[in-house]
Design goal:
With about 775 residues, the protein is mostly beta strands. Helix content is about 5%, strand content about 60%. It has four helices and 48 strands. The strands form two sheets. It has a 26-stranded antiparallel barrel. The longest helix is centred in the C-terminal third of the chain and has 7 residues, at about 755-760.
């Protein structure tokens, strides 16, 4: 009698109603899929369980006993083991011998496992695990109509809320306890995001809770082992699995600076709501003492803002209290109405230079406090804007050898501006304002102005011509206690004409085809002379000549000085444009202004232009990609009367790829500035990268700013060490050091040099272990 050998047995269980299916022939078997596809959540049918093994025994509708290369499969789950006992009524799996559980994209292996497939509760002994995260998208905002956090006006929201592609994680433990869907508790656990075979670092914890639903990992009794050395211990640490926002203590920031000494900041982040959070950041400085800081941020469909407060109760260097308050709020009221306020105050002049380690902060010399209410609306084919502004300033006299004159307070400034297009074939522009200028030591008063103008734009595909005529009317009311000035009215007609041509041709440059343009331009201005010497100067200053200012009506900023003019500006631009993409590859521009009469209006204390000078300085500019991976920008200002260079700025960047950049720059202003600036980021031996910058004043023979450091990419970790030194005043410098170890997906230990590197090295690319992520949780710039 011939027998058919039975090699494998497949047993299918549908809840409590088993269906026995014995496969006897080769080729007769279930589809060989390791884990079944997930069933729709709304499906009412019971979820089947399939058991495949060398030997299978079933007890009615209650249980299955399988041995020998057992595979138990259920929707989204697969269990592999030497022996499996499955209780169908309780949905319990008891597996032993080479246990392997594949749950969605997670893989766990151990000696023995007991798991309820329905509740996903149970345990696995001596497990090793590999968690492969599923990419996630931002959660739907909890507040109806609230925009996504990544659209928040405060830029820092992006740095704390943008979801990132998380890394894989792996490790082992004495026991892993299943606490429900996507929730694990690991006892005596080791956890890392390094790939298999790379044990450079581990987070070791007495208890590690992993909650995939909340995107949260919490370790108790945790230490970090780096290159076989324990470098950090904490009784409690929490981290985001997807680098999303969460409440909890953040990694401490360590650092040292010449003005603050050794310091440590221990931030606590409170994720109050999807649209609201707070960061508390106590900071201990060995030279200064304890500084307390907090930042509150909020975002609603119609308003958003931030409030930051810092307090140093007793500065050990000065024996007094020091503080800073910085708030911003912006709001839409509807029907075109909006408002905002900005409040900034510090306790003393040297608050930033003494307590900050960033040159962008220490260089702040004026702090505004202002509020504005605005209204916009349609006006025919155009629109109008009304605004009411109140503004005061705090001036920080940081350098006794460079006395600053505080700007005028504006109490208030009312402005109404608007335009209408195609009004009787012309365009109408109107600007009106009322401003009250207040100053403790300079002339004060009120200024009312109105500046309506009509223009007639004529344009084709290759030329344009726009004549314009306007009337600038100003009335000054001087305060009674102001000496040397009196009430004045000034009326000035202004006539301009702007015209230009555009020519194109096909050409070749360094072997590539381009479209070359030639764009000549003329700009004529006529403004008669009015004596303005008896008018106070509240806000006007002489604009630096540039390609933006040389084609403007007034060489002065503001409205207190309007230059007399009978002049024409001649300019020409040539561009190389890629014919397919339309990308501009190179641009060359020249411009010069020619005077037909003497200019007589000047600023107080400034001599008028020499009578014999018939033209302005000649401007030249070149920008674009001159060679593959090379980009250059050149600006040149030449005085044709004195045959001398007034300004020269030359900058070039070589960037053949991410993480490789070299910047070279030179800046020169006759009699004032002479600076060289070199910065770079460049890989060297192995995974090491050097970064540096040297900004040197050739005029003063002094280093203005210097930075040097190294970065190492360890694949699942990165190390950075950076030194930074910059001048805070004529005879004062600040020196700081940053040392940071980044463990991918878990923590950063040390002080964060990212802001310093980005501001000093143009084109800097972050050395990023394994996958791109944003910066660590935000601590406000100090």
């Amino acid at each position: 009698m011939h027998r058919i050998p039975i090699r494998r047995i497949t047993y299918a269980v549908l809840c409590a109603a088993p269906i026995a299916s014995f496969a006897a022939e080769d080729g007769i078997a279930l589809k060989p899929q390791r884990s079944l596809l997930s069933l729709p959540a709304e499906r009412d049918e019971p979820i089947p369980v399939f058991v495949e093994a060398d030997r299978v025994q079933g007890t009615g509708e209650k249980e299955v006993q399988a041995e020998g290369n057992v595979v138990l499969r259920r929707s989204g789950q697969a269990v592999f083991a030497d022996r499996v006992h499955y209780n169908a009524e309780k949905e319990e799996v008891d597996a032993s011998g080479g246990v392997r559980l594949e749950h969605q994209r997670d893989v766990l292996e151990g000696d023995r496992m007991k798991l309820n497939l329905g509740t996903e509760r149970g345990f696995i002994d001596k497990p090793s695990f590999l968690f492969t995260p599923v990419p996630r998208t931002p959660a739907t905002p909890a507040v109806p109509g609230m925009p996504a956090l990544t659209r928040a006006l405060p830029s820092e929201f992006d740095r704390r809320s943008k979801p990132q592609e998380p890394p894989e994680s792996r490790g082992d433990a004495e026991r892993l306890i299943f606490e429900g869907p996507d929730r694990y508790r690991l006892e005596k656990a080791s956890y890392t995001t390094c790939g298999p075979g790379n044990d450079d670092w581990f987070l070791k914890a007495n208890v590690l809770d992993v909650d995939r639903n909340r995107d949260l990992g919490i370790a108790h009794g945790a230490s970090i082992v780096f290159l076989d050395k324990t470098i950090f211990y904490t009784p409690y640490i929490s981290f985001s699995l997807h680098q999303q926002r969460k409440s909890g203590f953040l990694t401490p920031h360590y650092g040292t600076a010449s003005t603050t000494g050794t310091e440590i900041t221990v931030p606590y982040y409170w994720n109050i709501a999807p649209n609201m959070d707070m960061t508390l950041y106590p900071r201990v400085m060995t030279k200064r003492g304890l500084q307390l800081g907090s930042e509150f941020r909020y975002l609603q469909p119609n308003y958003n803002g931030t409030a930051r407060i810092e307090a140093l109760p007793n500065d050990a260097q000065l024996s007094r209290e020091r503080w800073g308050v910085f708030t911003k709020h912006a709001q839409e009221f509807g029907n075109g109405w909006s408002g905002a306020f900005n409040f900034n105050r510090v306790s003393d002049n040297t608050y930033f230079t003494d307590l900050s380690t960033l040159v962008a902060v220490t260089s702040r010399t004026t702090l505004p406090t202002e509020g504005v209410l605005a209204k916009t609306g349609d006006w025919g084919d155009g629109n109008y804007t009304f605004s009411a502004l109140a503004q005061r300033w705090q001036t920080l006299q940081t350098d006794p050898q460079a006395i600053l004159v505080p700007p005028y307070n504006r109490l208030p400034q009312l402005t109404l501006s608007g335009y209408r297009r195609d009004l009787l074939k012309t365009d109408l522009d109107v600007l009106t304002s009322y401003t009250g200028f207040r100053h403790e030591s300079l002339p004060s008063g009120k200024r009312m102005l109105a500046y309506p103008s009509l223009s007639l734009p004529l344009q084709t595909s290759w030329w344009y011509f726009t004549p314009k005529v306007g009337m600038h009317m100003t009335r000054y009311l001087i305060d009674e206690n102001t000496l040397g000035f009196e009430d004045r009215t000034r009326t000035l007609p202004i006539v301009t004409a702007d015209t230009g041509l555009t020519f194109e041709r096909n050409t070749k440059f360094i072997g590539q085809s381009f479209i070359q343009t030639l764009e000549p331009k003329l700009y004529y201005v006529y403004i008669p002379f009015r004596d303005q010497s008896r008018i106070p100067n509240f806000e006007s200053g002489l604009q630096d000549i540039s390609f933006a200012s040389i084609f403007s009506e007034n060489q002065f900023s503001g409205h207190d000085r309007i230059n007399d003019a009978n002049q024409v500006t001649v300019g020409v631009t040539s561009r190389l444009i890629h014919p397919d993409s339309g990308v501009e590859r190179l641009r060359l521009a020249l411009a010069q202004r020619y005077y037909f009469s003497e200019q007589r209006v000047t600023l107080p204390g400034v001599a008028p232009r020499p009578d014999h000078s018939a033209s302005s300085d000649l401007l030249a500019a070149l920008s674009g990609t001159i060679l593959p991976n090379w980009r250059a920008e050149v600006g040149y200002q030449y005085n044709t009367d004195q045959s001398s260079t007034q300004k020269a700025n030359v900058a070039t960047r070589y960037q053949p790829g991410p993480g490789k950049v070299l910047n070279l720059a030179y800046r020169h202003t006759a009699g004032l500035i002479g600076q060289t600036d070199v910065s770079f980021q460049w890989p060297v031996a192995g995974n090491w990268t050097l970064v540096g910058r040297w900004n040197y004043s050739t005029r003063d023979s002094r280093t203005l700013e210097a930075l040097g450091g190294v970065e190492y990419d360890g694949g699942c970790w990165a190390f950075r060490a950076v030194g930074h030194r910059f001048a805070t005043a004529l005879n004062a410098v600040s020196t700081s050091f940053f040392v940071q170890l980044e463990l991918n997906g878990v923590s950063r230990i040390g002080s964060n040099p990212m802001d310093v590197l980005r501001r000093n090295v143009g084109g800097y690319t972050r050395v990023d272990p394994r996958s791109p992520r944003t910066d660590d949780y935000y601590v406000p710039d100090r």
